[in-house]
Every structure is written in structure tokens, then in C-alpha cells.
Amino acid sequence: MDPAELKAIVRTIPDFPKPGILFRDITTLIAHGRGFAATIDRLVDRAQMADASAVAGIEARGFIFGAAVAARLGIGFVPLRKPGKLPLDTIGIDYQLEYGDARLELDPNAIDTGEKVLLMDDLLATGGTACAAVDLLREAGAHVHHALFVIDLHELGGGEKLRAAGVTSQAIMQFGNE
Prior knowledge:
Subunit structure: Homodimer.
Shape: globular
Oligomer: single chain
Strand content: 25-35%
Subcellular location: Cytoplasm
Order of helices and strands: HEEHHEHEEEEHEHE
CATH topology: Rossmann fold
Protein name: Adenine phosphoribosyltransferase
Number of strands: 9
Distance between the termini: 22 Å
Mean pLDDT: 95
Strand order of the largest sheet: 4-3-7-8-9
CATH class: Alpha Beta
Catalytic activity: AMP + diphosphate = 5-phospho-alpha-D-ribose 1-diphosphate + adenine
Pathway: Purine metabolism; AMP biosynthesis via salvage pathway; AMP from adenine: step 1/1
């Protein structure tokens, strides 16, 4: 399936979570067997270029795509978790979202110092969560230079923010404010 066909599977929900927002819901893409498989194929093709030894996925939907890609590449998967989800001492980072505060945590033993890690999530918007994830992975000793997303809401500037942090980002599809 080509990117236009995949994009057509993504459901758009107007005015969620607040008026004026067009929410891009990937639930329909995950539920579509051929579409989901084609999305993973496209992500794997791009991920191979990153030459990473692990994939880090942001909770929760980044787990779905990141773990599938890591398994296909035969490399490890590192979950970046919401607070209080790991039963051990963690390192974490607090960051701002457009609608409040958030935190990501990581098992610091999940990454070897100097390890090349590819960051993955379902959607790139303002880049706040992705940049926080990059900072957290780097604090753990990882080299992070590439990030992959299923969707990029390019007008929100997340890609530019990642580039400023030294990270190249790619997405399978882009949505504007249509």
C-alpha cells in the first residue's frame, strides 16, 4: 500500500481533545491488517538506514510500532514509560505539553553507553515529547540521531525542533490542517 492509501485509513476526529484540533486517530490503521503491515514495512525500510542497535518507543502507541520494527530488525526494544510503571530505580525527564506537564522514565540499564538508538512514536506534533525522549536517552548514554514516526503534523514544527537537537526525523505520512 502506498502512503496515500495508508493516509486514507487514518481516521480524523474534529474538535478532539478540544475545539479546533483535528485529531489523527491511528486506531483504524492498527486495526487494518494490510495497512498495519504496510506501515511496519515502510518503517522498517527507513529504520535500516539508521543503523541502530535498539529502538526506543514512547508510551503508548510508540510501543506498538517500535516493538514491531525492532522485532523485524532483530534488535532490542527500549520502552520509554510514563511515571511509576517500572518496578526499579529509573531516570526520568519532566517536560511541558501544550495542555500540561508530563514525564518519561527509563530503566538506565536498558541502554549501553554509546549505543545507537532509533526513537519511534506514532505521531510528531510540536516535538516536545520527542525532544524530551531524545534528552532522556542521551542522559542514559545513547547516541540518538534518527527518529521515525507514522504521522508528522508538519505545520506544528516538531521536525524543526528535532533537527535543532541534532536528530533527523522521517514519517510515513504528513498531515496539514486539512
